[in-house]
Design goal:
Layout: H1 7-13, H2 17-38, E1 43-48, E2 53-58, H3 61-64, H4 67-80
Antiparallel strand pairs: 1-2
Helix pairs in contact: 2-4
Amino acid sequence: MRFRPNMNGIRSLMRTPEAGREVERIAARIASSAEGSTGGEFRTDSALGARRWRAAVMGDYKRHRAAERTRTALLRGMDGAGGS
């Protein structure tokens, strides 16, 4: 027997308000963890796209004066937000 995912059902699930809240919660955890590792200010934004909820965590480039340091902080933030 071959597993065939119900893609219409999955897409429908990924567009629910509950999924949106979870995406926003995870983005907020990443931003908080990144702030803690650098002392910088990070912001989040989320929106319902054509297929699913999406979120972004944006760094304070002015304060850090270097995109690479912001990128490093975001990656650390993603690692720190990995726990439940």
